[in-house]
Amino acid sequence: MGHDETHFLEGNQLQMNCENLDRKISGGVSTVFCTMEPVAFYIIHRAQREGPFTLDQLQEMIAMGKITPEQSGWCSGMTEWRPLNEFMPPMVPKSTPPLSAPSTFAPVQPPAQKRSKTWVWVTLAVLVVLGGFGVLMGYGAYAILKKGSAEMAYLPLQEERSGHEVPWQNSSLKSIGPAEQPNGKNFLQIRYHSPAGELSAYLTPDPKDGKRHPAIVWAHSFSGGIGSMFWQHNQEGHDLTARAFRDKGIVMMCPSWRGENENPGRIELHYGEVDDFLAAIEHVKKLPYVDPNRVYIGGHDVGGTLTLLAACASDQFQAAFSLGGMLDGIAMLKRLPSSQLPFNPGATQELWLRSPLRYASFIRKPVFYFEASGSFEQDAARRMQQRAGSHFQAFPIEGTHFDIVAPLTYLIAEKIAANQEISFTTNELTDNFKTLAFKASQRKPPVQSQDSYGLASIIAKTELHPYIAPALKEEDLTTLRSAMESLIEQKDYSPKAFAAVSKLSDLRNKIRDQQLLQMYDSVLAPEFSQWALQRVKLPAEMTKAEEDCIFAILVVHGGIPTNFAGADLTAAVLKRGMQPDSLEWYKVYSIYGIRSPLTAHLMRALAVAPPAGRGGKLVLNHINMLIQQGWEGDHPYNSLHGLDVLKSWMESSKPESIELASGAARTAAYLKAEFRDVLIPMALQHPQASVRLAAAWADAKSGGTTGVPLLKKACVDVQQSAAAQGLLKNLLLEDEIPLEVRDPGFITKSMVALTLAHTSFLGEPPLSIDIYDHKDLFWPPSRQRGDIWLLKFTFRSKDGGAAKTGYAMQSTLVNCYFLKGDVTSTVPEDIYLRACASEFMGYAKSKNDPTAKKEAWKRALMALRENNPGVFDAIKVPDDDAKP
C-alpha cells in the first residue's frame, strides 16, 4: 500500500492489499480489481484507541456528529495514523445504489470475455502472492497498533509508559537546594502529594472573600526547583515571575517536581514530572477557594514542555498555555549533551516517551503554544496542529525566548479573568505588545533617592513596567555613554557603581528599535566592555556579585562583531580563570569563527599569556576546531610560554589534567616543528591511552612516520579500537584500518567495552572482555530472530578487593542487559533466561511482587523453549526468589 493513502471499493467496504495499485489519476482514483478482504478501521476517540469499525459504521458516526472527519484513524496497510478525511472515500448518498459484489468476496468480474487456462493459473499465482503479502501486512498492523512508532504513539502517554523501566544514569541536572521561603503575602509554601511523595510548592493564599476563583498551575522554567524567580527577576534581568496571574486575582500554584528542592526521587526530565504535574492539578482543584471548573495549566521552557505532556495525558483543566516548550522531543533531546540526560542516551525509546509531538492526537482540551519567532519550530508546530486538530494552536511571537513571558502571561491572565472562551489571533498578540509599551510610556517614573552618573532615570525606565521592554530614546543612550565614560575615567568599581551597571548590563537585549540598536552596538558596547576589562585586570579579589556582573556584560557584548574591546574582555576573563559553569559562555565563544575579524584579535590577545586551567582547555579546543575548518591565523600556544603551559599539562598527574593533556597532544600538530618535537614524544609516553592516541594522530597529521602504525595497533585493542578507528578516518586513512577489526565478534567486544566505560556503568574500561557465547535465537520480547552475543568481562572492585566478573548481552534484539553482581548460574542459557525474564517483568509496579517475579520466569522459559527447540530444554526456573 502507499504510505499515506488507502483506497476502497464502496459497496463491500473492502480494502485492496496490493502494493502500488492505489494511485490517483486526474479527477479521481483509479479502480483496480483484485482479491479483497474486509477492512477494520480504528480511530482515536476521547484519548482512547477504539475499533474495529466498518466503513458504514464510521460514516454513520460522522453523519450523527459523534466523531469528526478530522479525527485520527488507521487501517491495515497504513504506517501512521492520519485524519479520516485524508484516506476515507467520499460518503455516498443513500439513494445511490451500492456497487455489487458477491458475499463471498470473490474477485469482481469485468465484462465477460474469452479466457485461456494460462490466465487462470496466472491469476491464482497472483492471489497466492497477495495472500502472503496480506499476512505480512497484518503482522505489521499488529506491531504498529501495539508499539506505535517514533513518529506517533498509538497508546495514551500514561498507558504507553506503564510498566516501562528507565535506564537511569547520573546527569548534570541537580536540585538548587531547598525552596526559598516566600513572604506569606504573595505565596505560602506548601506540600502536595504526588506518586513520588510529598513535594514542595508555592500557593497564593486564600483571599477569604467567600468566593471560588479561577486558578492556574504554573510550571517553572528550569530544572532544579522553585525559588525567588516567582517574585523577582532572574540574574539576567528577565521577568519569569508570571505575577500577572496574581495581579488579576487568579489563584496560582507553582509546584516543584521530584528530585528538586530536597523532594524525594530524582530529576527525570519530562518523565515522572508529568505525574507530579497531574497531582498538582488535582490538589488545586480541591481547594475550597478555587472553582474546579476554571483550572488552567501553563509553563515556560522546561515547564512549557511539561504543560504539553500534561495536556497529552489529561483533560482535567480548561486550557493549557505552553510558552517556549519543546514540541519534537526526539529531535530536541538528541541535541543535548549526554551529561544533561538522566537516562542512557542510547535508549531511543526514552526520547519517544518524552516527545509531546508523538502524543498530540490525544490532546482534547485547548492548548495554546507560543515561542519567539527566532526559536519557533515551524514544522513541528504544523504536525502538532495536524494531529491535535482544532485543540492546538501555535503562534510565533516577536521577541526572545525569555522576554515573551511577561507580556504573554499578562494577556493570558486578562482572558482568564474575563471568564470567556479563550482564543488568540496574531493581530491581537501584536497589538497587545504595542499597547503595553504605550501604557508604560505614559506612567510617571518613580522618584530616585540618589542618582549615579545620571543613570537613575534610565534605570527607572527599565523597571517602569514588569511586562515590557523600556521605551528608550536616543538621548537616553547619549546619557548612558557619558556615564560609562565617567565610570571608566574614574575607575569606579564601588558597590554602588556595580549595582547600577548590573541593572543595565542586559539593556541591549531589550532594545527593539533597530536604529537605536546599531547606535548601542557601535558606541555603548565598547564602553561596557572597557569598564569590565579594567576591573578584570585589577589584581584585587572579586566578589560573586562583581563576577556575575562582568560575565553578564561579556555574554551580552562579547559577541558583537564590531566590539574589539569585547574580544579583549574575553581574553582577560579566560586568563583570569573566570569560568562560570554556564552554557552562555559557549554562545560567546561561538562568535569567534574563521571569518570573524574578532578571531585573530582574540588569538593575538591570548598569545601574550596563553591561559591555563579550564580557560586554556576552552581555547585549545576552539583553536583546534578552527584550524581543522581552515583557519590559518596565529596559534596562541605557538610560543615558548605556550609550550611551557602545554608541557605542564602533560606532566601533571591530576585526573582532571588528562583531558588537557589530550588537547595539548592534539594541538602539537599545529605548532612549530621544534615545539612539536618536544610535545609528541612526551605524549607518546603518557600513562593514559587517550593522550597517546592523540599524539599518534598529531604525528601522522604533521607528516611523521610513527603515528599511523601506533593507530593501527590500537585498532586491534578492544579498549582503544573505536577511538583509533575514528582518528584514522579523520586522517582519511580508513584503508589502514586492519581487516580483523571488522570481525563481528571483535566489533561486539569493542562496542560493549565502550558502553561499560560510560559513567552510568563501570565508569572505566573493563579489565578484560571476551566472547562467552554466541547463538542465533528467537527473542520473545522483540518477537524477532537474530544473533545474540554473550560476553564475560572483569572489572575493578570499588572496595579495592579482587577483580569481579560480570556478563553482558549485545544484540539489536535485546535491551541493554548487564550482570555485575553475584550470578547464581554461569550457564549461558540460564543468563539468556534471566535477561528474557527481566524484559517480561512488570518493572516498577510489580518488581517487588514475588508472584510477578515467578510468572516472569515461567513466561520467559516457556517462550524461549517454544521458539528455540532443544536449546532451553535442560533449563529450569530458579527455585528461590531470584530477581531477573
Distance between the termini: 42 Å
Q: Kindly state the mean pLDDT as a whole number?
A: 79
Radius of gyration: 33 Å
Q: In percent, how helical is the residue content?
A: 40-55%
**What would you call the shape?**
globular
Structural class: alpha+beta
What is the topology, as strand order, of the major beta sheet? 10-11-13-12-14-15-16-17
What is the percentage of strand-forming residues? 5-15%
Please summarize the sheet with the most strands.
Answer: 8 strands, mixed
Number of helices: 30
Tell me the number of strands: 21
Low-confidence stretches: 1-37, 92-122, 126-130, 133-146, 437-450, 843-847
Summarize this entry quickly.
With 884 residues, this protein is an alpha+beta fold.
